[in-house]
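Here is one chain, start to finish.
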Amino acid sequence: MKRLLRKFSVLMTVGLLTGGMMIATTSPSQGATKKPKLTNVLIGCTPEIGTIIQDYMSDSGIAAQYGLNLQCVSVTTGPEQAALLVSGGLDISSLLPPNLYSLLDAGVPMVAFMPIETGPGFDLIIRAGFPLPDESQGWTGVMKDLANARIGVPALGAAGQDLAEGMFQEANVTGNPTYIATGAGSTTLAAMSANSIDAAITYEPAISEALLQGIAVQPFSLIEGGGPDNITNFGGLFYTTTRSYAKSHETLLSNFEKAYEVARAWMVNPNNHSKAIAFVEKDLGVNEALAVSVFDEALLTFTPATTVNANRYNTEGQFYETLGVATQYWPVSKYAVNVLQSTITCYKAKATKKVTAVKPTCPRGWSTKKQK
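Its structure:
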């Protein structure tokens, strides 16, 4: 019944609302040199580390160098982002695969065009003082201890809850946990501090903040490779849009991907570490110690701007189809698109022509070889 209700809610939402190239660089100034006309892009902004590169890309001016005016639309949960993508309230947004699968199940033509980070995207924290008598058995023992716990998730019936249910399944634990929608990281920590939840599936910076303040403990970390192997090898967060938007804005998405890689390369460069920490501090509104913890953890997962990794995402698709989150298996080939364009020079007699496309080819009668 839970999954039927989930699918029904997605269908209702849709019905109501519709009525790999890497640029090596260490400085933003080494991006595009011209100042092209800016195109407005409505993009989802979430209060978490997963979109920190996106924020830097905008604030540093890198996006503008590639002709992009990123207009931030504040969102908190995956279902909220999915609904806005369908309604046109967002052009581009990050999603975790389970939230994309729900839209695909509902017949919404969606695509993913670029990975953001590897791994499950979320992690598990447990309220300090909550009894864990089976912790010595490893992550399966911890899940056994949580069998009847109150577990906070960003939204009910969405990616966070899906992940928790998958972990119980992998641990062969049958229990009766109570899932409670706690929203963003700040409200999740408030619920945990008030003893309203025993554990939570959440994201950074809430995870590091909870640990640094002693609000929670973390017997194992999915992000660091603890827990079931198939979950730790998930594809993770990626950028999505509607198929029609991707088709009509191929050059824009290609420029987005190129700008993102310039920003990512700058942020992960060790020479820029202190400046990157300062940006995280300002962008997330956290202190320096928390910014260091959050950013250094994120460095383990940030992915170069390239095409969607079939192995990781197919593993995730098979897992969630088996779990019942998706009504069918959604392989990468069904929803991933390559938007990264490149340019070639074509020759015909003494004439030259540049062709830019995802798979550029010379027109008939032209050749990539310069004629003598």
